[in-house]
Design brief:
It is a single chain. The protein has helices at residues 14-26, 43-55, 69-83, 111-122, 143-154, 174-177, 190-201, 205-215, 219-227, 229-247, 250-261, 268-292, 305-311, 317-335, 340-349; strands at 32-36, 97-100, 131-135, 160-166, 181-184. It is α/β, with parallel strands linked by helices and 351 residues long. It folds into three domains: 14-184, P-loop containing nucleotide triphosphate hydrolases (Rossmann fold, 3-Layer(aba) Sandwich), CATH 3.40.50.300; 188-227; 231-349, Zinc Finger, Delta Prime, domain 3, CATH 1.20.272. It has a five-stranded parallel beta sheet, with helices on both faces. The longest helix is centred in the last third of the chain and has 25 residues, at 268-292.
Length: 351
């Protein structure tokens, strides 16, 4: 496990922690923030740590004391999250801290969730301090939920802070974005993640190299590859299925898709799993293109390099470009509520 450090728990994106540290020191906190950037960069972790800082009863500068009842609440919650398969992020750790996110099997964050969220933030603070709310997957807010939230942002209350976490700020209503302070998180350099895995997690250099490449600039994802064997195996299976469908005939491709989808849950869970499969396939296709141009150092899936080399001469570059378009069309079909298994079958048959 990672060693405990009494500092901001973020790898890379120092501009974020520097900014948040300064506003804590100067006590100039805004009412609404948007943490924008790809998933697995630490946006939620930093939002929680920022909240802990604000609620800490003995904070000095921009660091929580780690000993007061508030800090203990946050620390216990974090420990419980690490020890369970679920992320536990829907569990509020303190009466003045509230987090909501898209519920499992739901396509959107509902207006009922947002109304409960707003109601909780409107109540008096337990410690005569801040009231802090985090909305994860803010891009999933339903239209009604976004409108309800906007009314709250238009009439901000003193000492109420709302943080919206998203990977696609362009999907949020402009009226919400215009009322928020935007903090953009960026993918982290390979060397930073590589050293992080070696120094903080004791990974070997070869493993650190593979996972730093595979994470594509996302430190939390690299750590998950290292620590969660089931997650890694599932990812590898999905990535290798790309190579298989290019190696098989039509019938075997459909069998491969059946193998992928047969264990999926139904409903929105299946949609999310299919979306991840398509994203992985897009990454492998990108690697194939990089190999075509000799950019081996930029390949994400080092673990598939030999397999890609064996099939790359069987298809033209134009064929691969067309397949990329098919993958993007598959993503669009998912959002249009086309059956996930059918989406993958259509992709496999397009080769």
């Amino acid at each position: 496990m990672k060693k405990e450090k009494n500092n901001w728990p973020l790898i890379g994106n120092e501009h974020i922690t520097e900014f948040l540290g300064k506003i804590l020191e100067k006590d100039k906190v805004s009412g609404t923030y948007i943490f924008n950037g790809p998933d697995n960069l630490g946006k939620t972790t930093i939002a929680k740590y920022f909240a802990k800082n604000l609620l800490c009863q003995e904070r000095k500068g921009n660091s929580p004391c780690e000993n007061c009842p508030v800090c203990n609440h946050f620390n216990i919650s974090r420990k419980n999250n690490e020890e369970t398969e679920g992320d536990g992020e829907s569990m509020n750790t303190h009466g003045d801290f509230h987090l909501i996110k898209k519920e499992k099997e739901k396509k959107n964050i509902s207006i009922e969730q947002v109304r409960d969220f707003i109601r909780a933030l409107s109540m008096s603070s337990f410690l005569n301090s801040y009231k802090i709310g985090i909305i994860k997957h803010a891009e999933s807010l339903s239209g009604e939920a976004a409108n309800a939230l906007l009314k709250t942002l238009e009439e901000p209350k003193k000492d109420v802070i709302i943080i919206l976490i998203t990977h696609s700020i362009e999907t949020l209503p402009k009226t919400i974005v215009s009322r928020s302070k935007i903090l953009n998180f960026h993918p982290v350099k390979f060397d930073t993640i590589y050293e992080h895995l070696i120094n903080d997690y004791g990974a070997s250099r070869s493993v650190a190299k593979n996972f730093a490449c595979l994470s594509l600039g996302r430190p939390a994802l690299a750590v998950k590859f290292l620590e969660d064997k089931d997650f890694l195996e599932t990812y590898k299976e999905r990535a290798e299925s790309f190579v298989k469908i290019f190696s098989f005939d039509i019938n075997d491709r459909l069998v491969a898709i059946e193998s992928l989808t047969g264990r999926m849950d139904t409903g929105q869970t299946a949609v999310e799993a299919t979306k991840r499969i398509i994203e992985i396939w897009q990454g492998v296709a990108r690697d194939w293109m990089l190999l075509e141009y000799g950019h081996i150092d930029l390949v994400q899936h080092k673990i598939l390099e030999e397999q890609l080399e064996r099939i790359r001469n069987r298809f033209t570059f134009r064929h691969l470009l067309n397949f990329n378009k098919t993958l993007e069309k598959g993503r669009e079909n998912l959002f249009a509520n086309v059956n996930p298994k059918l989406v993958l079958e259509n992709i496999a048959l397009s080769i």
